[in-house]
Every structure is written in C-alpha cells, then in structure tokens.
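My current task is to audit a protein record that another person submitted. I have pasted the whole thing underneath without changing anything:
***
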Amino acid sequence: MQAAPFAVAIDTREQLPFHFRDVRMDRRRAFVLTQKTTLSTGDYSIIGFENKVCVERKSLEDLYNTLGNGRERFVRELERMQSFETSMVVIEASWAQIMKPTSYDPLFHSQMNPASVVGSIVAFAGQFPKTRWKPAGDRKHAEQETFRFLLNFWQNATSTPQNNNVKDENKSTINGAENPADERRKQAESA
C-alpha cells in the first residue's frame, strides 16, 4: 500500500461520497486521507487546492435529472468551474449507458431524450472548456478516475520544472468530453 501525497476534500453535501479505499496509484493500492468540508463548487477536490481543481460526480439518474429539471443550477456550477485551473464531471455510466439507459436498467425512467443528454454534454464540453467530461462506466471506475484526475493535477501542480513531463491519462477527449471511439476500443480489447 502506498500513501497518496494529498488529502481529498469531500463536500459535506455529497450524498453518496466515494471512500477512496480501493483506488490504485502506481499499480499499488493507495491509502487516501479524506476530509469532509464545504466546497464552493464540485463534490471533490484536494485540501489546499479547493479553488484550483474540482470534480463533480453524477450517477446516470442524477445526470438526466441535472440536465433536465436542474439545468439552470448546473449551468451556474459549470460557469463557476471555469474559474478553476481544471475540473471534471465524472459520470458513473458509460457512453452506451447514457445513450440507451433502459437497455442497462429496465427500471430507469426519465422524460429526457438520451440524444438530448448526449447533445448537452457535447455542447457543454465546447462551452466550458476547462471542464472535462468522463463517462467512467460504473461507480467503482468513477472513483478511480476521480482519484487519477486529482493525482494528475497534484503531480503537475507540485512538480519542479525538470519534472513537467507527467503524462495526463485523462487527455483522450473531444472538446473536453471523452472520445466515444476510445470506449468502443476498450470494450473490443476486453472482449
């Protein structure tokens, strides 16, 4: 087990917070300190960097609700996220689940058209370029992606000029949104 070099700030209003117990760092399980605090924007950040980096977590149901009834409030949050050096919306679903939610959960119900949800993500990615969109597949992978995003920010923010060659594993994006073709490639490789 390896200790993470930072503590994760978790917003006190986060209803189902990640615990960061099963995340990996350098292929080894990471020990991650967390601290509940009131964040002005987002659900997760790094202690000491709360105004520089944030992650907003969305379940599939919450994503649909946010882009429907909660749209105005969410747009204000995306606007606030642009004052950060970087930010991410991590989704506990894959592109395929976002596009056809009832195929994965027959009980899923929303009045939002899936094409409208995907269109909103693509439009928001262009409108709010400092915010990346990461459909992670499921909750476990969303937690890992959140940790990796924060770790990458930490490494870049605290590196010396000689160490500025840190690879960003979250760069596979189209205007800030993950490339759906990459997801299909990953699915094909794992089959």
Q: What stands out?
A: The first helix runs from residue 60 to 67.
